[in-house]
Predict the 3D structure of the following.
Amino acid sequence: MMKTKRILALLLTVVMLCTGSMSVSAATTSAEAWSNYWKTADEEIGAAVMLTPGSDDSERYVSWYSESESGSVVLLDSNGKKLDEFTASANKTHQDDYRLCAVIDSLEDGKTYGYYCKSGDWTSETYTFTTIDGDSFTAMYLTDIHITGEDYHEDGIRDNSYNLNLTLETGLAKARAQGKNIDLLLSAGDQGSDGRRDEYTGLVASPLVRSIPFATTVGNHDKKGADYRYFTHQPNTADMNIRSYVGTDYWFVKGDVLFLIMDSNNTSMTDHRRFVKKAVKANEDVKWRVAMFHHDLYSARIESRESENALLRLMWAPIADEFGIDLCLLGHSHYYTISNVLYNNKTVEATENGGKVTDAEGTVYMVSGSVNRPRDDENVGLSENIGHAYLTQEKIYNLIDFSEDSIVINSYTVESDENIGSLTIEKTTDEGGHNYRTIGRLYYPLVSVIGFIANIFTNIGDAYDNRQQGFKIPFFEGLFG
């Protein structure tokens, strides 16, 4: 029976991969079909199988929940023939089961693979993924997905998961209508609302998350609980003196892009700077540098947060400036904005919707709207550093095309299928990062010291809150690397 299920799953995936010309409406699952899937795939959803990036495209991480502390991932070729088997490592959760993770390596460019997970007497369905061929690929960027259930009700998790799946399917159909695929999913934090396991289970309920590598960063809501720390497995994690209670920094390379995924809840900027410096040095020949962290820096959409944003700019902008970050993907405000090209917290080149910047001497900062908690309050301010903004109650997704010479951003609404914003960033040199000027910041050492101390107290508070919620973890575990 299990073998038959795997074959059927593989065939269904092949059919899906071959329907690149399908319309958006034909590609999406109905709410009723999702509800039926939620019931019939209960065991599969509970395992929360997730595909995440490895250090580069020759690797994939596969993780899932298991009652057993031993397991493996079986890798198949496109014909279903076994190629290899990879043993999983085990991380015991506070629910006294395990989050298993296996690293698949030695993958070849431009190949389609199948895989399934095994642990105890459980075997997953078979899923497929495809590696990129060359440096060009398309990423789908979301933020503030906020899987949650009203009063912790399971139907809320199901319905929020449906909204995410609808967004993913719509984006995939749009990409295929343009003759492309989605090769990477990016989420800039607040995947869940309370940091609970059932939220992250709902986050990866979509079958697409088992076929497209999904890179996430920790948001302020994710750190409300301790489950994010068990759920996520990443390559090249930072060796940090002080880190947040549930997250850390990590990097990976895809094509000719270095992705720097960072935890902006952590105010220890000394650690973040050291992480970026080390990652850039290890990838000096990589042309594009993209950072992703949760907190919005520039939109000024929420007046009460502007003092917080000003402090965050003091911490994060110097890192983007020093290391020539081309693009920062952010979240937190739930308002869609694309900044001008910024350096030293000032506009050095204006951007406009549908425009292009070439050899930018600064960084573009982008924030997308929330999937499940959109905001469109007209009575909000807007920073003078913003080049384009859009207010909507619709779900937003962003397709970002990376190639040797450019990063092309196109943003769409799910319900009305409107292109609400676009920007092209071009580079005529092969040097990593952008051209930047070195300037002195006398306040930076002071900000680093204050952030370092503040992060210690923040982590102690988070640890205490998690203990009060009954998480079975030592009080100081995770405070020090």
